[in-house]
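Sequence of Family 16 glycosylhydrolase (Ramlibacter albus).
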Amino acid sequence: MAKWMAAVTAMAVLPCAAQWRLVHEENFASGAPLDTSYWSIETGMHRNREAQYYLPDNVRVANGMLTIEARRQEVPNAAYKPGSRSWRTEKRTAQYTSGSLAAKQPLHFGRVEVVARGPSGAGVWPAIWLLHESAGVYGEIDLFEAVGKHPDTTFAGVHWGSEPRTRQHRNSSLLLPKFENNWHTHVLEWTPQRIAVTVDGRPVFSFDPSDAARPGHDPLRKPMHLRINLALGGSWGGPIDDSKLPARLDIASVRVWRWEPESLAAIEPPTIPSRLRAPGPSAPAALTAQTDADPGGAGVPGSGPPALSDAPAPAPRWGR
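Predicted 3D structure, token representation.
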């Protein structure tokens, strides 16, 4: 026993090729509420001429998952200004509501792993992303985006630039049959040398942050806040199919690791077991799609979120 413990201790302090420290974890299957010390919940209309008004009531934890729900629902616009020409303030009411989360503390390089199940239908626009926004500097990393007008497709990419009209973009997409309404594991690994995104262990996007840098500006190496939201319509979402509402973005778990290159105690992050990475006809019942009878998965045997394993597994490797 003593020899075994000594071996385990030795392995724990050995430096790894990629070093990470777990700094936040939420497994909603445990029944724990949303960690409001970590997350803030947005209110109002914010981006991309989207149709929804964000409300805290559209974010809930139930049935072993975090659910962000988009609804056809008329609500007053608190920012309304008579005579305004801004899309955020010109309307007295909004016709749709949804939910949006933003991490209170920034991440400066790290690994993000989210197990999620997105909706289908024209106009839906779920996203998991990181944002840095300050005077003259804008940097964005999209870990996951999907739009209903492009079924069975997941998108990932980066955006940077001081002004919206001159902002630059690099992105990629992956076509996955039966992608919507099924559980998938989305992973971002972000270091000073590489931004890399996978879904269910499959590479989707990679980028060198140096390619976005110029003298005095390094937008993709700035601290960023993690965000999870479900938008409707807007500049990319397009026309909304009301018959598909309410729509739901379900989250089974969120794990965040900080990149610590100098830490000898850093360990490889545990990842979702391989049996949960590639949902398909032979996947376990925990990964079955939502049903018309119960779109949220409640009360349907085997339709809840996948169970997570604490056993460590090798993380994806990315080199220049």
